[in-house]
Amino acid sequence: MNLAIGLSLIILFGLGVPIAVSILLASIIGIEFFSRLPLLMVPQQMFVGIDSFPLMAIPFFILAGNLMAAGGISQRLVDLAKSIVGGLQGGLAMTCVLTSMMFAAVSGSSVATTFAIGSILIPTMVKHDYPRPLAASIQASSAELGVLIPPSIPLILYGVSTDTSIGRLFIAGIGPGLLIGGSLLLFLYLFCKVRGYGLRDREERHDFTTAFRRAWAAMLMPVVVIGGIYGGVFTPTEASAVAVVYALIVGGLVYRELGFDDLWPIFKQSVISTTTIMLIIAAATLFSFLISRSGLPSDVAAWVTQAFDSPVAFLLAVNLMLLVVGMFIETSAAILVLAPIFTPIAVQYGIDPVHFGLIVVVNLALGMFTPPLGVNLFAACAVAKLSIDQLIPWLLRFVLVVLACLMAITYLPWISLGLVDLLY
């Protein structure tokens, strides 16, 4: 059955069938023709997959991110970031990274970050004599911080699929997010110095006090959400609802850029995004059920423990596999299918499941801006009006920077677990 499902998936992917539909059809083929299970298992397991209280956080965080993006947050965060690093050569490129880090803490979505920040900064960087493919590459690579810095939808999915504390995962994501963000900032500073980009970046720079006064309400959102979770005021799921209310208040009453006429398209887009993710979750749950029933996880675990005699070798093999998977499979589906298989094996090697969760998510985040199926790559190309092949020569530099950070996150657990150990 495993072989039949695998071949079906490959064929469906090759035909360009959407991820969720491919997983669902492959599972149905496996049940109907290669097992004795009734087709009633299809709706039953799909419902089991989405019948989870923590998953309610996903639609709320998506809605909160869309409300913040439409409520005047993007430009204010850009102005604040520019006031901090805009005085340096290459400051505009660094502003893109710093703004993406701030917006990630607000929206938790890398694609939302790409569109919200890229639509402002990519044209501005081109105006300041940055090559358009470089500007798009900076935005695509910076936006992946949205899946690391809490709130993070992939971290929620990992927590639900492996029964790992979402609160601990959120805290663990801060260190890797800051490491990757800081590394990109340092690289861009040196790169612009060497190549001579960003000589006019000091123009149109805002005073820090003025920029902060305009952006303080937006910056307070992650403080309210994360502080409320770790202060014991509410759970991560309840925090997502608080984030929606906060976004409505900030966009509608504080900044006054969010009106009733704006709400319908925001709700519509949030429903579409939520439906896409929930369908993937439901289909992946059915797929995981069939894989588990076939005994594949135990077979994989037995093979892995024989093939790799140390945690170092195991982590290297997992990294290589996840890097390839992330290039071809959507992040949510990859987490839901692979995390339940590999996390118990990682625990057998003495690897903390929270630390392993960050390794998984950082790997798959890298796939978000690498061809052929990187969603951030497509979003950045759409904003910059470029084709993917025009970005590839520029992207390689950023891929190498994030790969170096991935190796540090993998083999230096304190980067992920330092804050967790301090707070728990």
Q: How are the SSEs ordered, and which strands pair?
A:
Elements: H1 2-14, H2 19-34, H3 41-50, H4 57-70, H5 73-85, H6 91-107, H7 110-127, H8 132-143, H9 153-162, H10 166-195, H11 208-230, H12 236-254, H13 260-294, H14 296-307, H15 311-328, H16 331-348, H17 353-366, H18 375-384, H19 388-411, H20 414-423
Which keywords apply here?
424 residues, mainly alpha, 20 helices, 0% strand
Distance between the termini: 43 Å
Strand content: under 5%
Number of strands: 0
Order of helices and strands: HHHHHHHHHHHHHHHHHHHH
Radius of gyration: 21 Å
**Outline type:** globular
How many domain regions? Answer: 1
- Number of continuous helical runs: 20
Protein described:
The chain has 424 residues and is mainly alpha-helical. It has one domain. The protein is built from 20 helices and no strands. α6 packs antiparallel against α10. The longest helix has 35 residues. The N and C termini lie far apart (43 Å). The model has no long low-confidence stretch (mean pLDDT 83).
Brief digest:
The chain is 79% helix and 0% strand. It has 424 residues and is mainly α.
